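Course exercise 7: structure representation. Students receive a sequence record and must write out the corresponding structure in token form. The form below is the worked example handed out in class, using Carbohydrate kinase (476 residues). Read each field label carefully; the graders check that inputs and outputs are placed in the correct fields and that the protein name is recorded exactly as given.

STUDENT ID: A-19
EXERCISE PROTEIN: Carbohydrate kinase
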Amino acid sequence: MFVGIDVGTSVVKAAAFDRGGRQLAVEARPVGLDLRGGAVEQDMAEVYGAVVAVLGALSARVPEPVELAGLTGQGDGLWLVDSAGRPVRPAISWLDGRARPLVDGWLADGTFEAVFRRTGGALFPGCPGPLLAWLDRHEPGALDRAAAAVACKDMVFQRLTGAASAVTDVSDASMPFLDPRTRSYDDGVLELLGLAGRRRLLAPVADPAAAGRARGDGLPAGTRLTNGPYDLPACALGAGVTAPGDGLLIVGTCLAALVATTSLDLGGEPAGMYVSTDRPGHRLRAMPAMVGTAALDWVLRTTGAGHAELDGLLASSPPGARGVRVLPYFAPSGERAPFVEPGLRAELLGVSLESTPADLVRATCEGIGHAARHCLAAAGLTGALAVCGGGTRSPAWTRLLADVLGRPLRVVEGEAGARGAVLAAAGRHGVPLDTAAWTEPAHTVTPDPSRAAYYDDRHEEHLRLLTTARNRARHG
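STUDENT ANSWER:
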């Protein structure tokens, strides 16, 4: 069998596939987030323990020899490790907002734009650059003790293989220090962020991706393991999104819009990022919005509803949610795509005593759909669109998204990230797999023409409301 490991923000998963791409089994374990006053951290020992646990449970369920394993996981954040890959301090999540004042300052003095023009990546509080700069000011001792500042999957790869030092890949290195033209670190960016003295903490970029042998934690000792792309490009690979112009929408904790491209445009409004892939010259134009299923989770909790009720609630409120509008920007660090606005917060509009919980839920789902449409347009979508992620498990929400986006959706079921991790590993080792069969969509959802026309008008209203909210966030 082939095993894909996906170390997510709140859930760690391992999936087994046969040679034809059929998903055989999945094991998952939740991992916690420690939220305190804008700080969002994770226990690395808990995360690594969850990886070992899901791999052991998967092997017990599908006792076939493991031919190959691939690794992916959450991107951004900051995972400080010693020379053995063990934690120096708790990991800082990509959801962390402590570096917001630094990003605000860089927005004001031109540093933010200067970095974007060099790398194609728009800084946000939870990406490695601001987090390193924050630690350099507030916890310099932690940086002094660390051997490397890596991404989540890089820590896991080093621990699973027992590698002598940390290594990363071009996708995780893309934000914010990689020059997308040379596929190597841009020391000028480190200087712009005041981090030239911390250059040693950046792990070497393995290009092609690093490969090693498992040392026996969860995976059988000797199993070939590849440190693949992080979760966004891994999902794109698992969904078959490789042709220029084709796109993927991941409806997860983060609402990520990705479009495959062979071009590189460092002009325009600084937002999103270019993610380098394993093929030089091929990139993903990524607009990974902070808004996502976390916004819906908050509204469901607030209204006392559960996820199992979502389809019924959406059916109980008409398109337009009886005038209720939600700007679903709930993240404490604001928004990062398709614009950067650290001070932006969610807004509920048009609510009255006659509004129902169903109206609030539907308005939130519609608001997330409009945010997705905004991101996909900014990313340059011209071709087919695939969708995956936890949000697509709701048939009603998937139909709503097709209507709001006004285009057919190729629905990818199962573990797209883990599937992409395996395909990346197969490419790295020259193992021939039928990529078309591995990436075949489960089905396609087409928009209703009348509802799509209705949402065309509502999208313009969403953009107007958003402009007002952004001005308020900037000027109070």
